[in-house]
Specification:
By secondary structure, the protein is of the alpha/beta class. The protein contains 11 helices and 8 strands. The longest helix is centred in the N-terminal third of the chain and has 14 residues. The chain binds NADP nicotinamide-adenine-dinucleotide phosphate (NAP).
Length: 269
Amino acid sequence: MTTSAEFASQPIGFGTWPFKDEEAVRSVASAIEIGYRLIDTASKYENEQAVGRGIAASGLPREELFVQTKLRGHDHGDVRGALERSLEWLGVDYLDSWLIHWPLPMLGLYSKAFEQMAHAREEGLVRSIGVSNFLPEHLDALKAETGLVPAVDQLPCDPSLNRPELRAELAARGIQVQSWSPLARGGEVLEAQPVLEVAQARGITPGQVVLAWHHSNDLVPIVRSGSAQRQRENLEAVSIELTDAEVASISSLPQRGLGDFDPRTRDER
Ligand SMILES: NC(=O)c1ccc[n+]([C@@H]2O[C@H](COP(=O)([O-])OP(=O)(O)OC[C@H]3O[C@@H](n4cnc5c(N)ncnc54)[C@H](OP(=O)(O)O)[C@@H]3O)[C@@H](O)[C@H]2O)c1
């Protein structure tokens, strides 16, 4: 089983939503060539075939890559079928990591689905199983119903949604956090004063400051860029260690809420 320590050895992942078709092929191949190894997709993104073509186009041996996809809501009741489809579309014979995309508590199926995913792991079709958008209440129910603890929880996290209590809780449970939308989709966070100050002082870009903030908080950012130049810039950022004072100043940004992305109510299938 992949442990959270092995996830931490992947300092950054390449995000592929909302790329489709040739854009997905091109950006995945470029990201791999630049040095990304963790490639993140999802059945829900409807781009697994194109991501698989990008992986193939890179020419890198399979074992050097870390391929992660997610079980969509429609498939909570058909875990085996979903796995077969994802493997076929990605053109691989195992996944490094497979996550439940959203808990969908209104369906009440995530614990059964996770048990099926654990069977697939025992068969060697999946190296590691995890979740996304799970809160402690969902993890508690999962543990109580299956005895299983996911290796990773992929959550929305950035300096304006920095979730310190949740991160501490997951760390205490030995669950590696991956941050989705780590740049808050390239919005205001990149123009925030503390981010700009660190960028200027260190001679790096605001995007690099924010990615270094994730890295300095033991988070694995899953970042997307269609530009080879920014892909490279982002990858370089995870070797930058911020000081405690820099982390604290960036963490002091005004906090936003989850909005429509509250996993207790979001019905995304
Ligand atoms: N588990 C889930 O429920 C979930 C939900 C959403 C997303 N995700 C995953 O997380 C990944 C990343 O999230 P995201 O795509 O929403 O947002 P993101 O990575 O925070 O931001 C991507 C945006 O930022 C821009 N950007 C990238 N690097 C930059 C830099 N250094 N400086 C300035 N702008 C930069 C990109 O533009 P350019 O392309 O022009 O560079 C793009 O518009 C997704 O692709 C997906 O794999 C998971």
